[in-house]
């Protein structure tokens, strides 16, 4: 019943067509057409797909836009590796610059444009994620070095400590007189990392006889201020991984 009404409603059909046109538009430049799609890069910019006609067949590509996006944020070397994997997943080609489908029939163009747009966006998104993992790896190494430098043999890693509701594994701890006197948790800007650290450190902090609780942020600036405030409510101290040794020591 509802579907039939929708199909017969000319006013609604007009509105639907108008919305569809607003989500995508095309521009012809010489012998190429450029389709601005509803698919976005992580930056929010629309993915633009290029179509070139060769006789009865068409060449469809992202015109190197994903590669350019990666280059702009310094990820072109990471992108090169990821792009090849993405091309295989989407069953398309990648030539170290562009994602493309070499020969497309006219009837296949909508599907080809959609595939190229999604592959281009996915490659940029995965590049950003890979770069973030690399940065977190460097930050974690800094965290380990700071803990060792600050506490020496009193530091232990991957320790287990009792909270009010359960035992928790923490990234590092300081042992004094055979007792854990402070625990450190390494936290990235990712929401799941923040949420888990808040829950863990809050549960430990609720203990009557407990160690000091310290959260060390992998990237202080990229962790939203409201999230830093939430973390501060569950731990005794929150600071950046790059803080000097004196701050590590004073927190414990």
Q: Could you explain how this protein is built, in words?
A:
The protein has helices at 2-8, 10-23, 65-72, 76-90, 109-151, 191-205, 225-232, 245-251, and strands spanning 25-29, 32-40, 46-54, 57-61, 93-94, 99-104, 155-162, 167-176, 179-187, 212-217, 237-240. With 252 residues, it is α+β, with helices and mostly antiparallel strands. The strands form 2 sheets. The chain has a 6-stranded antiparallel β-sheet. It has a 5-stranded mixed β-sheet with strand order 7-8-9-10-11, sandwiched between helices. The longest helix has 43 residues, at 109-151.
Percentage of residues in DSSP E strands = 25-35%
What strand order characterises the main sheet? 1-2-3-4-6-5
The main β sheet shows up as: 6 strands, antiparallel
The radius of gyration over CA amounts to 26 Å
What is the count of helical runs? 8
Mean pLDDT: 88
Helix-strand pattern: HHEEEEHHEEHEEEHEHEH
Instruction: Specify the helix fraction band.
Output: 40-55%
Assembly level: single chain
Q: Judging from the principal axes of the Cα atoms, what is the shape?
A: elongated
**Which spans have pLDDT < 50 for at least 5 consecutive residues?**
1-7
Q: Decide which structural class fits the backbone.
A: alpha+beta
The termini sit apart by 68 Å
How many DSSP E strands? 11
């Amino acid at each position: 019943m509802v579907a039939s009404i929708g199909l017969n409603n000319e006013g609604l059909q007009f509105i639907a067509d108008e919305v569809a046109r607003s989500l995508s538009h095309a521009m012809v430049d010489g012998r190429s057409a450029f389709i601005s799609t509803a698919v976005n890069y992580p930056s929010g910019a629309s993915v633009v797909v290029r179509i070139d006609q060769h006789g009865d067949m068409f060449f469809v590509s992202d015109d190197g836009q994903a590669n350019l996006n990666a280059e702009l944020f310094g990820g072109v070397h990471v992108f090169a590796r990821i792009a090849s994997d993405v091309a295989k997943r989407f069953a398309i080609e990648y030539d170290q610059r562009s994602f493309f489908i070499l020969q497309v029939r006219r009837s296949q163009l909508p599907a080809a444009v959609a595939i190229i747009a999604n592959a281009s966006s996915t490659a940029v998104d995965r590049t950003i994620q890979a770069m973030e993992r690399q940065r977190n790896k460097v930050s974690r190494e800094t965290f380990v070095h700071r803990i060792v430098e600050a506490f020496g043999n009193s530091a232990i890693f991957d320790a287990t400590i009792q909270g009010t509701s359960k035992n928790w594994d923490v990234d590092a701890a300081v042992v004094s007189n055979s007792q854990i006197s402070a625990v450190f948790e390494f936290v990235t800007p990712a929401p799941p990392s923040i949420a888990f650290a808040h829950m863990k450190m809050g549960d430990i902090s609720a203990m009557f006889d407990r160690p000091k609780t310290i959260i060390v942020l992998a990237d202080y600036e990229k962790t939203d201020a409201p999230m830093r405030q939430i973390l501060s409510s569950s731990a005794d101290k929150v600071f950046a991984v790059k803080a000097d040794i004196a701050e590590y020591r004073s927190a414990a």
